C-alpha cells in the first residue's frame, strides 16, 4: 500500500476556470468568478452531488447513470477524451456481454456500444450462439464514434466534464468531501456528497490512505498500432505488442511505458520496412492497484460462479493473466456465471466513497477476468446508482437499500443477477 504524498495535503491551491468545450463542459454549480486583481489565477468552486474521478470504461457509465438519476454530477478526466482503454488505448472490441447463449450485461455501457456500432453500419456477434473461443463474441466498435457519443450522452444527462484535471487532495468535510483538483492553468475545488473512483488504480482511495493491493510485478500492457495497411475502426483487429513492466501507477511509470512501446514500434517499422498507418496515443494498461474492499472476490468465487447476496452485476471472461510468455486463457466451466458484489466496490472502512472498474476488490486471478470492459461497465452503472441514491438520501452507498439499487438498475436497462 502506498500512502499519499504528505505534501499534497499541506498545499493549498487556488481554484481555476472550468475548461469550456462546447455544450458538454459547463459549470455544475456555484462558480466563484475571478477577481480583477487575480485574473491570471481565476478561481472555480463547484458543489455537486456526485464527483466521478476518471472517465474511462467504468467512469463514463457511472457519470451518465448518476446524471440520469438527477444527481448533479461532475466528471474529472486527466486525459482528452472519454472511454479510456477502449478509445485512448484502442482496445475497441469490448466484451463479454454474453454467456452461454444469452446476454448478461446490458444497460448504459451496452447502449453506447450498440449505438456506436449501428451508426457505423457495423455488425454484432450472435449472442444466442456459444462461440468456440471467447474473443469471437467481442464487439468491434468504432473507438472515435464511441468517444464522442459518450460526450453527447453526458451532456444529455446534465453531466459536466473537466478534461486535463486530476485530484491533488481529498479532505473530509461536513456532508461529504472537499476535493482539490489541478490542471494546466486551472485549479478547482469541488465539494461533493459522494465520490466514485474510476481511475483504474484507485487513486482517490490512495490519496485517502486507505488500503490497496498490488503485485510486485504487473501484467504487460499492450501498445496498439497498424503497419502496412489501413486500420478500419470497427472492422478489423489492430496490431499490438507487449510493453513489459507497464505500470500506470504514476506519470513517471506511465511515461516509461509509452516511451518503451513507441520505441519498439519504431524498430518494427525499420525492420519490416512498412508504413506506419495507425498508432494509439498511449499504452493500454492491464493491472495496477486494487482496493481492499468490504469483501474480496477470489478466483474460487469467480470460477465457481458464486452468487453473492449483494450481487449488482454479472461478469464473464476467462481467467486471463498475461505474462512475459504470453497468455493462456482459462475458460470458465459450462454454465458458470460469476457475479460482482456491491461490497467489492466499497473500500474497507470508508464512507461516501465507491469504486468501479479494474480496481474492484479482488485477488489477482479473479481480477484478470473482472478487469475487462463489459464487467467494468456493469460496475460503473451500479456505482452510479448507489452514489446518486446515497447523495439524495444522505446515506452511504452501503446504507441505501439493495432492493432500491437493483430496481433502479433494471429501470435503466441493466441485467441484475438473480439466484439460479
Strand fraction equals 15-25%
Q: Count of DSSP helices?
A: 10
List unreliable stretches of 5+ residues.
1-42
Mind telling me which CATH architecture of the largest domain this is? 3-Layer(bba) Sandwich
Shape: globular
How many structural domains are formed by the residues? 2
Q: Enter the CATH topology name of the largest domain.
A: FAD/NAD(P)-binding domain
The main sheet comes to: 7 strands, mixed
Structural class: alpha/beta
CATH class of the largest domain: Alpha Beta
N→C terminal distance: 38 Å
CATH superfamily of the largest domain: FAD/NAD(P)-binding domain
Q: Would you write up a description of this structure?
A:
With 420 residues, the chain is α/β, with parallel strands linked by helices. It folds into 2 domains: 6-87 and 142-215 and 289-322 and 339-411, 3-Layer(bba) Sandwich (FAD/NAD(P)-binding domain), CATH 3.50.50; 221-279, no CATH class. Helices cover 27% and strands 20% of the residues. It has 10 helices and 18 strands. The protein has helices at 6-10, 57-68, 107-119, 143-156, 203-207, 251-272, 299-304, 364-370, 373-393, 402-411; strands at 44-53, 73-77, 98-99, 102-103, 160-163, 165-173, 176-183, 186-197, 212-213, 221-227, 239-243, 276-279, 290-291, 311-314, 322-323, 326-327, 339-341, 353-355. Strands 1, 2, 5, 6, 7, 8 and 18 form a 7-stranded mixed beta sheet that branches. A hairpin with a 2-residue loop joins β3 (98-99) and β4. Mean pLDDT is 90; it is low at 1-42.
Amino acid at each position: 500500500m502506498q500512502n499519499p504524498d504528505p505534501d499534497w495535503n499541506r498545499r493549498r491551491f487556488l481554484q481555476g476556470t472550468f475548461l469550456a468545450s462546447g455544450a458538454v463542459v459547463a459549470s455544475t454549480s456555484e462558480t466563484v468568478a475571478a477577481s480583477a486583481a487575480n485574473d491570471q489565477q481565476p478561481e472555480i468552486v463547484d458543489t455537486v452531488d456526485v464527483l466521478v474521478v476518471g472517465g474511462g470504461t467504468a467512469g463514463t457509465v457511472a457519470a451518465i447513470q448518476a446524471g440520469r438519476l438527477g444527481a448533479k454530477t461532475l466528471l474529472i478526466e486527466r486525459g482528452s477524451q472519454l472511454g479510456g482503454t477502449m478509445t485512448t488505448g484502442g482496445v475497441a472490441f469490448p466484451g463479454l456481454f454474453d454467456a452461454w447463449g444469452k446476454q448478461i450485461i446490458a444497460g448504459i455501457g451496452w447502449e453506447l456500444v450498440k449505438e456506436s456500432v449501428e451508426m457505423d453500419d457495423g455488425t454484432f456477434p450472435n449472442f444466442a450462439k456459444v462461440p468456440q473461443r471467447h474473443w469471437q463474441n467481442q464487439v468491434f466498435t468504432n473507438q472515435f464514434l464511441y468517444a464522442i457519443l459518450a460526450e453527447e450522452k453526458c451532456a444529455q444527462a446534465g453531466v459536466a466534464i473537466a478534461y486535463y484535471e486530476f485530484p491533488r487532495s481529498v479532505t473530509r468535510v461536513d456532508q461529504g468531501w472537499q476535493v482539490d483538483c489541478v490542471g494546466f492553468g486551472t485549479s478547482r475545488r469541488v465539494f461533493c456528497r459522494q465520490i466514485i473512483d474510476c481511475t483504474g488504480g484507485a487513486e482517490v482511495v490512495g490519496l485517502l490512505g486507505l488500503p490497496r493491493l498490488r503485485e510486485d510485478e504487473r501484467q504487460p500492457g499492450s501498445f496498439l498500432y497498424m503497419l502496412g495497411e489501413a486500420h478500419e475502426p470497427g472492422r478489423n483487429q489492430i496490431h499490438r505488442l507487449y510493453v513489459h513492466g507497464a505500470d500506470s501507477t504514476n506519470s513517471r511509470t506511465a511515461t516509461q511505458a509509452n516511451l518503451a512501446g513507441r520505441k519498439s514500434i519504431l524498430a518494427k517499422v525499420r525492420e519490416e520496412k512498412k508504413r506506419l498507418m495507425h498508432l494509439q496515443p498511449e499504452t493500454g494498461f492491464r493491472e495496477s492497484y486494487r482496493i481492499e474492499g468490504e469483501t474480496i472476490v477470489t478466483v474460487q468465487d469467480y470460477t465457481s460462479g458464486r452468487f453473492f447476496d449483494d450481487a449488482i452485476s454479472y461478469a464473464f471472461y476467462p481467467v486471463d493473466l498475461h505474462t512475459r510468455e504470453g497468455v493462456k486463457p482459462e475458460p470458465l466451466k459450462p454454465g458458470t456465471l460469476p457475479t460482482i458484489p456491491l461490497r467489492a466496490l466499497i473500500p474497507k472502512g470508508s464512507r461516501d466513497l465507491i469504486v468501479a472498474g479494474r480496481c474492484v476488490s479482488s485477488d489477482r486471478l479473479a481480477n484478470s477476468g473482472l478487469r475487462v470492459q463489459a464487467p467494468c461497465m456493469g460496475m460503473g452503472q451500479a456505482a452510479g446508482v448507489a452514489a446518486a441514491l446515497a447523495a439524495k438520501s444522505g446515506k452511504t452507498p452501503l446504507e441505501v437499500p439493495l432492493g432500491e439499487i437493483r430496481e433502479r438498475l433494471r429501470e435503466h436497462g441493466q441485467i441484475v443477477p438473480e439466484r439460479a
